[in-house]
């Protein structure tokens, strides 16, 4: 699975999952290789980081509540169920489980112009915070970020935050979170990528 997001905030409405500025591409395992595909000439690419490990975490929320995390019922939940992560930075990037929404809850799903409001059986595939905690020495990460090509007006530049040992991975409206979701009731099962603040 490859997740793409336009970093050109000066020209793209990248926070909207149906504008073409975001894309989730699924690649068959047999089509993968052990080398990176080169980007077109002159195209800046975001800083490449690898996940070395994931922590297992049980949020304590009953799995039967999952459908309510994707509609207006989320707003009526007790806060400890609606926001089981208690906005803990270390839990904001995750694979699977319930979406840990920002303080706006599933507002991006409830917007009248949003294509995802037509029902569906939505599930979280991947959630990415604006910044990730890194395990490598922060000075090495800073040197890597400084040597990485960036776009015009520093668009696409990686920000390194030595105070908490993290690095910015993308512009999700400055402090937002990116969500890869899939509708299991859809025939295509094509994931979508959206950003919530």
Please characterize this protein's 3D structure.
This protein has 3 helices and 9 strands, in the order E-E-H-E-H-E-E-H-E-E-E-E. The two termini are 23 Å apart. With 197 residues, the protein is mostly beta strands. The chain has helices spanning 79-82, 107-110, 138-147; strands spanning 2-5, 22-25, 94-95, 122-129, 131-133, 160-161, 166-168, 177-183, 192-196. The model has no long low-confidence stretch (mean pLDDT 80). 9% of the residues lie in helices and 19% in strands. The strands form 3 sheets. It has a 4-stranded antiparallel β-sheet, with no helix packed on it. The protein has a 3-stranded antiparallel β-sheet with strand order 5-7-6, covered by helices on one side. The radius of gyration is 17 Å and the shape is globular. The longest helix has 10 residues, at 138-147.
């Amino acid at each position: 699975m490859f997740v793409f997001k336009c970093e050109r905030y000066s020209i793209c409405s990248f926070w909207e999952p149906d504008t073409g500025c975001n894309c989730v591409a699924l690649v068959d395992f047999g089509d993968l290789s052990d080398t990176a595909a080169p980007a077109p000439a002159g195209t800046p690419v975001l800083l490449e980081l690898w996940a070395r490990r994931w922590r297992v975490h049980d949020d304590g929320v009953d799995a039967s509540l999952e459908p309510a995390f994707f509609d207006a019922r989320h707003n009526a939940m007790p806060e400890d169920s609606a926001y089981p992560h208690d906005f803990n930075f270390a839990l904001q990037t995750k694979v699977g489980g319930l979406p840990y929404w920002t303080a706006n809850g599933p507002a991006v799903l409830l917007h009248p112009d949003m294509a995802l409001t037509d029902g569906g059986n939505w599930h979280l595939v991947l959630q990415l915070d604006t910044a990730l905690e890194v395990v490598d020495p922060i000075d090495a990460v800073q040197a890597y970020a400084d040597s990485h090509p960036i776009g015009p007006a520093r668009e696409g530049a990686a920000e390194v935050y030595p105070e908490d040992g993290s690095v910015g991975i993308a512009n999700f409206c400055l402090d937002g979170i990116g969500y890869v979701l899939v509708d299991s009731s859809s025939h295509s099962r094509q994931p979508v990528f959206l950003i919530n603040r």
